[in-house]
Amino acid sequence: MKSIATLVFVLMLGLPLAAQQPPPPKAPAAAQDGFVPVDTPMNQETIPAARLVAIAYGFIWVVIFGYVWTVRSRLSRVEREMDAVSRRVPARK
């Protein structure tokens, strides 16, 4: 019974995805007679890759510099605390 319920659930999840797919494009009448070269691509998607890569690298560098800054500030705080403790505790001979 569980397997049937799981199968129904998986099929129901897939139905909206199948309904959202666009129908395949229809070929023009001239293409059915023979080969017709395409001068310009009709549905070509372009992504500004160079800009996205630059943004990604910039984000990574900001994260790295932020991490280094926090480590440096925590280290300086620990050094100040160690100096304060060393001043309070007398030196052992």
Briefly characterize the structure:
This protein is an all-alpha fold and 93 residues long.
Walk me through the structure.
The longest helix is centred in the C-terminal third of the chain and has 40 residues, at 49-88. This protein has a domain at 49-88. 69% of the residues lie in helices and 0% in strands. The mean pLDDT is 78. It has three helices and no strands. It is an all-alpha fold and 93 residues long.
Write the layout of secondary structure elements.
Blueprint: H1 2-20, H2 29-33, H3 49-88
Q: What's the total helix number?
A: 3
Biggest β-sheet description: none
What separation lies between the terminal Cα atoms? 79 Å
- Reading the helices and strands in chain order gives HHH
Portion in strands = under 5%
Structural class: mainly alpha
Q: Please tell me how large the radius of gyration is.
A: 32 Å
| Low-pLDDT regions | none
Number of strands: 0
Shape: elongated
Average pLDDT reading:
78
- Please state the oligomeric state of the protein chains shown: single chain
How much helical structure, as a percent, in the residues? 55-70%
